[in-house]
Amino acid sequence: MGTYYCFKTKKCYLGAINFLILISIIVSGALYLVEMNNLVVKGFKSEELNHNLSILSGANQDLKNQQLAMQSYGSLDQKIKSLNLVTIDQIDYIAVTSETLAKK
Questions:
Q1: What is the rounded distance in angstroms from the CA atom of residue 86 to the CA atom of residue 74?
Q2: Per-residue pLDDT tens digits for 23-73
Q3: Local structure of 87: helix, strand or coil
Q4: 99 secondary structure, DSSP code
Q5: Torsions phi, psi for 45 (to 5 deg)
Q6: Residue 51: count of CB within 10 angstroms of its CB
Q7: DSSP characters for 29-61?
Q8: In terms of pTM, does the model score above 0.85?
Q9: I want to staple 15 with a disulfide (CB 3.0 to 4.6 A). Which of 1, 23, 63, 79 is the partner?
């Protein structure tokens, strides 16, 4: 890289300008590679999180199904029978007369 002469015998330092352009191209290329690497890493993380979300959604659905099965009538009926409660044949209510009520 040398010096070049312009009109009216003025020196133009095109070598320095070319060097600055070369440095800016190299820096721009490096920044481009860093940003592309960041985007790829974020893409992999996003894919991993989506995979984990699908696994957790399936597990959540299984737990909801298990909850519904435990709350179903058949399950509750079996649990009630295992408590050995006494069945009631006839219900007697207390007869309330007017004498037992409070008077003003």
A1: 19
A2: 999 999 999 999 999 999 999 999 999 999 999 999 999 999 988 888 887
A3: coil
A4: G
A5: -65, -40
A6: 10
A7: HHHHHHHHHHHHHHHHHHHHHHHHHHHHHHHHH
A8: no
A9: 1
